[in-house]
């Protein structure tokens, strides 16, 4: 339990002992939690200055009903000596106050910090690590653009829902008119025949509304709903069914096709492993011009976000650094939290995270 993020209950099942008693004994006697020097403030922050290195990452994750900010060392690879600091909340001043407890000589040795587009994280890194180059994670860059495409998809879905509701109302009105006309006809033309009725079969008055089906057997709303994943990945990863769906989607919604094409061109810049920072800057400015030529406000907003932090975005092409190590630690902490069925005792949870990853 000092090495791996496992619970006392799962260990108790393996050794055929009471997991609750084992957890209580580990917390009170075996672990050293009662003598931990950071127990008094562990609910708000935890700090391990000895784990600081030259290449760091900062990210936030939901933990115990609130966000917590984690500063990690990339050289730890998600294992021991990875966790440097954990601070409750995302307020820049609170995080800076904790990180300033690290000696200045150590903070000035940091060369690179990876992060997302968060302005609060940007302020923290600028203040606490003055010599560090800030790198915006390329996955968050593409994700920001994918959100723009998803906004167009949701907008088209809302319009399709309105059109379907209007079509459904017209269908209902048509049935009501049919009922009235049939009553009037029966009143003026009473039945005078016996046996089987001749002529075409009358339309049912309780007929259900059926929306228009597309070539792949989906409605327009279903098409837009099920296209979320395929718009977030490269076309090379599509299955045959997704290719058919994308073909219909792009034919019906050319704006979504235009936005997706622009995102793919940006993704190709970051996936090219042979270009340097200067070449990437030229290609990025060419992408700016392509976006300027379109009329999609959502994509232009994503372009402006990238353009605002262009230098930090281009720093990715120096060492190809990503924030994957910080995301890896976040996923491990979430998995540990899931085993516990939620965090009931945050100080003890942070103690265990400190001895496993600190």
UniProtKB/TrEMBL annotation:
<dbReference type="InterPro" id="IPR047951">
    <property type="entry name" value="Transpos_ISL3"/>
</dbReference>
<feature type="domain" description="Transposase IS204/IS1001/IS1096/IS1165 DDE">
    <location>
        <begin position="56"/>
        <end position="352"/>
    </location>
</feature>
<dbReference type="Pfam" id="PF01610">
    <property type="entry name" value="DDE_Tnp_ISL3"/>
</dbReference>
<protein>
    <submittedName>
        <fullName>Transposase</fullName>
    </submittedName>
</protein>
<dbReference type="InterPro" id="IPR002560">
    <property type="entry name" value="Transposase_DDE"/>
</dbReference>
